[in-house]
Amino acid sequence: MGSIRNNNNGNGRVTASSPTAATTDEDGAGPVEEFSPPTTEQLNMRCTGVKRLLKEAAELRHANEMFCARPMEDNLFEWHFSVRGPPDSPYAGGVYHGRIVLPADYLMKPPNLILMTPNGRFETNKKICLSISGYHPETWLPSWSIRTALLALVGFMPTHSAGALGGLECSREERRRLAIKSLDWRCATCGVLMRDALPALPPAGSTGHGQTERLLKEIRGTAGGTNKSTTDKQIGMGTALDYNQQSSDWGWPSTDSSRLRHSCGCRCDRRF
Questions:
Q1: What are phi and psi for residue 194, nearest 5 degrees?
Q2: Which long-range contacts (CB under 8 A, 24 or more apart) does 65-68 make?
Q3: Residues designated catalytic
Q4: What is the mean pLDDT of the chain?
Q5: Which terminus of the chain has fewer CB atoms gathered within 10 Å of its CB, N or C?
Q6: Backbone phi and psi for residue 223, each to the nearest 5 degrees, phi listed first
Q7: Which residues, including other chains, have CB under 8 Å from residue 28's CB and lie 6 or more apart?
Q8: Please, are residues 114 and 125 in contact by the beta-carbon 8 Å criterion?
């Protein structure tokens, strides 16, 4: 099982920090939110959350052309990930890096997602407010996983922020510029350069291309529509019609599905 070393200290270990500590990333994009290290109880091998995370780490140990994620070497509850921008969108060609910070009672509560690479859709180094993130435990399902969260994150990128906390409304030109620039972005913590973070996209017609198309179908599905059994009040967003129109505006299909398929327009008052 692979893990990520921290390049910020001599012994390659992840430095423990207090919940209020903060550092600034190499691009000066602002303070990076820090979290407490896991407790002894969290690292108990008999803990359901730990068993699940070890299984997920094993399943995700090999990067695919759309995303990769691995835990930090000394903290199973913090992961780093890289995702490729969705095609047919201003993010096409970009690769974006971020952190996943998991709660002690993961499985029952969702992870926090934090993008570190400037992208024009989400603020950097701040928790992202989506229905699959820590801002909305009421919509999280224990059957979901880190892989599910990454697919949903990529699927949500082409949608409008609708004023949600942490969302940005940049021009398509600016997002294209940032997508190109993202390839030269390197994580100051793990040292990963974005142009080397993921395998290259396979050529059309190849065996690998079929796998990529299946992944893209999953990604498109995560942002495809709304489930009428889940009310707007439950997920804290605009109407289903509004959201489906947003998806269509970006050229992504709108299909009825699960409550995973919601961006957040709740304008939460929970602070980052």
A1: -60, -35
A2: 65/198, 65/199, 65/200, 65/201, 65/202, 65/208, 65/212, 65/215, 66/154, 66/198, 66/212, 66/215, 66/216, 66/219, 67/147, 67/150, 67/151, 67/154, 67/198, 68/197, 68/198
A3: 129
A4: 73
A5: N
A6: -115, 20
A7: none
A8: yes
Rounded Cα distance, 237 and 162, in Å: 9
Q: Which fold has domain 22-249?
A: Ubiquitin Conjugating Enzyme (3.10.110)
Please check the confidence at residue 202 and state whether its pLDDT lies above 80. Answer: no
Instruction: Indicate if the alpha-carbon torsion angle 186, 147, 87, 176 is positive or negative.
Output: negative
Dihedral sign for Cα atoms in the order 209, 214, 215, 220: positive
- In tens, the pLDDT along 36-79 reads 555 545 556 557 888 999 999 999 988 889 999 999 998 999 99
Entry pTM: 0.71
CB 100 within 8 A of CB 69: yes
Per the structure block, which two tokens stand in for 104? 């002690």
132, two tokens:
């699959």
Nearest CA to 143 out of 189, 116, 181, 107 is that of 107
Q: How many residues does the chain have?
A: 272
Whole-angstrom distance, CA of residue 35 vs CA of residue 194: 24
Q: How far apart are CA 257 and CA 245, in angstroms?
A: 15
Measured distance CA(93)–CA(95) in Å, rounded: 7
Contact indicator for 253, 224 with CB cutoff of 8 Å = yes
